[in-house]
């Protein structure tokens, strides 16, 4: 965690292993804020679990209630510099939030979101899927190569028998 770091309370924040938080991060932790392992938080990121009533009479300036909703950021995420995550948002594992984006709603796993409000601009494949796919492609390539070699061997065998 790089200073300066600002928190509302501090004790409602839970970090997984190997989380990196760059400088000037603000986390308003009126409710629980959970950040999963191996997640990277860019500079000037704001994570807000705190909110106030929309009705001005109920809000009543500093006399009204402060409330909030939990924020959850999954494992292996990257939150770009200057991004803001609003109350109640859940960001799935493996996501990327573009710089200066404002995340107003849940983000599905393995997505890239950007903009204000943030929207999905790309889907990412989980590592497990990449390995399976790559493994499948390797098998297909090997089978094709085997087919070519068998054809070559057959041709060589026919030439040898003709001699």
Question: How would you describe what is shown here?
Answer:
- The chain folds into 2 domains: 119 residues, 3 Solenoid (UDP N-Acetylglucosamine Acyltransferase, domain 1); 39 residues.
- The strands form 4 sheets. The protein has a 6-stranded mixed beta sheet with strand order 3-6-11-14-16-17, with no helix packed on it. The protein has a 5-stranded parallel beta sheet with strand order 1-4-7-12-15, with no helix packed on it. A 4-stranded parallel beta sheet has the order 2-5-10-13, with no helix packed on it.
- The chain is elongated.
- The protein starts with a strand and ends with a helix.
- It has 2 helices and 17 strands.
- Helix content is 25%, strand content 28%.
Describe the structure using short key phrases.
2 helices; 163 residues; alpha/beta; UDP N-Acetylglucosamine Acyltransferase, domain 1; 5-stranded parallel beta sheet; single chain; 2 domains
Mean pLDDT: 91
Question: Considering the protein shown, what is the CATH homologous superfamily of the largest domain?
Answer: Hexapeptide repeat proteins
Instruction: Kindly provide the name of the CATH class of the largest domain.
Output: Mainly Beta
Shape verdict = elongated
H/E series: EEEEEEEEHEEEEEEEEEH
Q: How much of the polypeptide forms β-strand, as a percent range?
A: 25-35%
The CATH topology of the largest domain comes to UDP N-Acetylglucosamine Acyltransferase, domain 1
DSSP summary: helix tally: 2
Helix-strand layout with pairing:
Elements: E1 5-7, E2 13-15, E3 20-21, E4 25-28, E5 33-35, E6 40-41, E7 46-48, E8 50-51, H1 56-59, E9 67-68, E10 71-73, E11 78-79, E12 84-85, E13 90-91, E14 96-97, E15 102-103, E16 111-114, E17 119-123, H2 127-162
Parallel strand pairs: 1-4, 2-5, 3-6, 4-7, 5-10, 6-11, 7-12, 10-13, 11-14, 12-15, 14-16
Antiparallel strand pairs: 8-9, 16-17
